[in-house]
Amino acid sequence: MSESTSPGGRVASAVAEAVGAFAAPRMRARVLSLALRWARRPDIPEWGPDVREFVEGPLLRAAEELLGVDLGAAIRDELAPMVRMIDDAERSGVRKSVPAPPAMPRMDYAPAPPVLPTPPRREQRNMATDPAPRSLPIVLVASDDPSAVEALSSALAGHATIEPVRDALAIMEGLGGADAAVVVMDCRRPVVRVETLLALSPELPADSRVVLWGEPRTLDQSLKMLGIGLPPSWVRCGREAREDDVAAVCRVIST
User: Fold this and answer.
1) What predicted TM-score, i.e. pTM, was given to this entire model?
2) What's the rounded Cα separation, in Å, for the pair 8 and 83?
3) How many distinct structural domains can be found in the chain?
4) 134: exposed, middle or buried (C-beta count within 10 Å: 0-12, 13-18, 19+)?
5) Nearest CA to 226 among 140, 107, 145?
6) Residues 160, 249: one domain?
7) Beta bridge partners of residue 24, listed in sequence order
8) Residue 190 lies in a domain
9) Most-buried pick from 49, 50, 176, 250 (CB within 10 A)?
């Protein structure tokens, strides 16, 4: 029998669906966020024994803490068939596709990026008469590519301060600060999956913006299979976008 890999984010989506069956969107996001914190993981695991450990450990404890013991057990029981299937496939040495969760209502989000105006030319400040500048906005960058983070920092010098982040919890905590409203998700060298941040999106501040840099070509197909769409505050930068292109987008949406 040939080996087949499961589409990215299927387990994360199934977990989000199971929690969402017993909790409102904002509480669901809190449960997932707390579970990731206790698991010390950047993402919900997608394969192997880590799935069972996450569901029966940090996720169960987070659900019990925020929703109560009975609902925590109900969420665990809801996910038990999926966990058993992954265990069986792991023992047999054949990686099977995780079944798609029940289809969520389609969102009417338009994924097309906005038309961005040309950034204004930076004027020379008169130190004697002009008021002191405000503190620079913070742009969070989730990337496993240190050179890309450094290049973005150089491209945004004088416009924004770059702050690297390594997991979904750091993104949520960073966006909760007064000076951070933009996060760049480097999909070419990711440290956080798009599906994970989408599951947590109800908990993000209303004014936050997410820039997807080099999103995979299969993203739309994956989101369609999961029955979700990108919120209108999420901006796409294609796979051909360079650091200067991403910086130009950040300058516009962070002002």
Assistant:
1) 0.58
2) 16
3) 2
4) exposed
5) 107
6) yes
7) none
8) yes
9) 250
| Domain contains 98 | no
Token representation of residue 2 = 């040939």
**How big is the chain, counted in residues?**
255
Structural tokens at position 136? 């620079």
* Encoded tokens for 227: 């029955």
The neighbour count for residue 173, using CB atoms within 10 Å, is 15
Cα-Cα-Cα-Cα torsion 54, 60, 66, 71, nearest 10 degrees, comes to 140
Could you list the residue range(s) of the whole structural domain that residue 23 is in?
10-92
Phi and psi angles of residue 170, each rounded to the nearest 5 degrees, phi first:
-65, -35
**pLDDT score at 5:** 32
The token pair at 5 is 């890999």
**Beta strand spans in the chain (E):** 138-142, 161-165, 180-186, 209-213, 234-237
Q: Tell me the CB-side half-sphere exposure of residue 136, using CA atoms within 13 A.
A: 14
Question: Where is average pLDDT lowest: 20-34, 167-181, 210-224?
Answer: 167-181
Tally Cβ neighbours within 10 Å of residue 167.
18
| Dist. CA 194–CA 185, nearest whole Å | 8
- The CATH number that applies at residue 209 is 3.40.50.2300
What are the structure tokens assigned to 39, written together? 């698991």
